[in-house]
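Aim 2, interim progress. The first record below pairs a target sequence with its structure tokens.
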Amino acid sequence: EPLMRRPPLIIMMARWPGIGRGKTRLAATASPVIAANFQWHSITALIKRFGDDKRWDLTLALTPKATWRRARRHRLTSGARLIDQGSGDLGTRMTRLFRHYGTPARPVIIIGSDTPHVSQVDILSASRALTRHDLVFGPAEDGGYWLIGWSGRRISHHRQGFPPLTQVRWSTEHALVDTQVSLKRHCSNDPKIILLRHRIDVDNASDLQATGPVRRVCAR
């Protein structure tokens, strides 16, 4: 009997968009205010785009957890369910989310809040890819990635069948390659990996300029 699949879980990982919170490279090349405005705009735009679509479930993994009440008061979450990222580096936090929420009946797709032009077509492409592949990546122009998805099928002997993401040089041009090397190192067999199209991950002022309309200042 075929497995009844649930809609994929989309987890958007984001930091509270306060001035001086995160986006240090963007803040340094533009300004802390512009960086915070970009974060706010991108989070709210992505939640609006994906939040009411019945083809998937959207959650917002917002850090730090102490800002959740403030986020709700300012309507940042727009009704999206909030979940905890937990502690550790990015690899540790993503591994935790995959292990906690992923099952063979429900794939998990993680996106960031730094790629405001991620579309519904991108999410559908990732979801469809995970019916035939173990892992999917959305590669970024800078060598990182704007999306990572897991089918939920066991690919290692580690807890919940998902391996640890270790020895990854995060926030560098090596992040995507390092992640793939880590996965293959810890997996039982070579996982089936597919790549989506490249997109711009906004890390500095020139990236922000290239994204176009999202440069508008958002009221907070």
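The second target in this work package is listed in the same format:
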Amino acid sequence: GLRHKAVSILVISGDYILIQQRAMCKYHTPGQWANTSCTHPDWQEDPHRCATRRLNEELGITKLPLNHRGQVEYRAHVGGGLIEHEVVEVYTAHTQFNLQLAPNPDDVMATRWVSITDLQNQLATTPEIFTPWLHIYMEQHSEMIFKEMAGV
């Protein structure tokens, strides 16, 4: 539960978000759906550089311009007696649905595009299939993250 730095990225196409299902070998929240990509920066690594690196490592995504949306701090139980207490730099990137993906099976089981409205409904009706931080982003920080999108 020690406070530490993190980055999170949400790749967006129109009013859809690319989400990923975490690999079963992950040490916490395996098999749960999360935002497009997230990680912890290497020691003294620039958050923007970290976000760019991690998109490539997890999903094979390169050359998408990232937009810094702000910082979120949260503390959440992630299972197995573990607590994440993160200070997260949040980024978005805009693309088309035909984005080429190469998911790393050590990180990602599956990906899918979901509309923001459908995601909000699914978070309410099947909360257990989503990571705690995705709940926090969507329920508490949607306005900051999606500020350029009307109606969110």
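DSSP finds four helices and seven strands in the chain. This observation will shape the mutagenesis plan for the next reporting period.
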